């Protein structure tokens, strides 16, 4: 199997971008307003309100909608994985298609198979992330079902319980987000089939896209403002 230095550099950049961004985002979220940090505060406020509602049909509908979205991605991931595994029996045809693309690197039979292995591994990881997220939302359903009714919302013990529910929901959302990132980076890996330089460029573009959406978008600004408003209302209510 002939692997060029450029291929090695490209895959190192790809893996470094993925792992590096995940660690960077986790560290930066601790002291910077972002989607993950602000939504966690929204989830805490939501669970506080859940405790004060005797009838929780609305919460059941909202959570069912979230689980339905994750279920869609989980089933879609299996279909994509089946398609990728099918390509192992059609490597020659795939090489013929790549060879017809202008400026594409000359396909190498063994290297194409390695690329397919990488792609399949990404979608296997994505499937595990989505199914684990679904299970965590199921755990949250159980906790909400077990939560007693607190009319005034002033029970300190139940407020701590509400925070624990928010933590479970937050972990489920993080796992779902990790699965979505697999989709983002899988699109970057597809560029490797054409040329390793494209993999380097696309990996960096995915990182830039994720950063702008999670830390520097109008959605983040709106969610942050909403978090501040909810916090102010909570203080007034607690007085």
TrEMBL record:
Entries under Pfam families matching the protein: DUF599 (PF04654)
Domain of life per record: Bacteria
Transmembrane stretches, start-end: 70-89, 110-132, 183-211
InterPro entries: DUF599
The entry's keywords: Membrane, Transmembrane, Transmembrane helix
Protein name as it appears in the record: DUF599 domain-containing protein
């Amino acid at each position: 199997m002939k692997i060029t230095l450029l291929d090695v550099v490209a895959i190192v950049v790809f893996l470094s971008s993925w792992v590096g961004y995940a660690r960077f985002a986790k560290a930066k979220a601790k002291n910077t307003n972002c989607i993950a940090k602000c939504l966690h505060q929204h989830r805490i406020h939501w669970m506080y309100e859940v405790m004060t509602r005797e009838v929780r049909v609305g919460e059941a509908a909202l959570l069912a909608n979230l689980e339905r979205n994750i279920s869609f991605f989980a089933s879609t991931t299996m279909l994509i994985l089946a398609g990728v595994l099918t390509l192992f029996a059609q490597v020659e045809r795939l090489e013929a298609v790549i060879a017809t693309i202008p400026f594409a690197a000359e396909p190498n039979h063994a290297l194409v198979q390695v690329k397919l292995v990488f792609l399949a591994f990404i979608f296997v990881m994505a499937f595990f992330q989505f199914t684990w997220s679904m299970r965590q939302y199921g755990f949250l359903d159980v906790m909400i079902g077990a939560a007693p009714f607190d009319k005034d919302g002033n029970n300190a013990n139940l407020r701590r319980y509400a925070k624990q529910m928010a933590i479970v929901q937050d972990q489920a959302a993080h796992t779902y987000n990790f699965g979505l990132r697999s989709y983002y980076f899988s699109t970057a890996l597809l560029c490797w089939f054409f040329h390793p330089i494209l993999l380097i460029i696309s990996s960096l573009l995915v990182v830039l896209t994720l950063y702008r959406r999670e830390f520097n978008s109008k959605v983040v600004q709106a969610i942050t403002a909403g978090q501040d408003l909810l916090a102010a209302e909570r203080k007034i209510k607690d007085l």
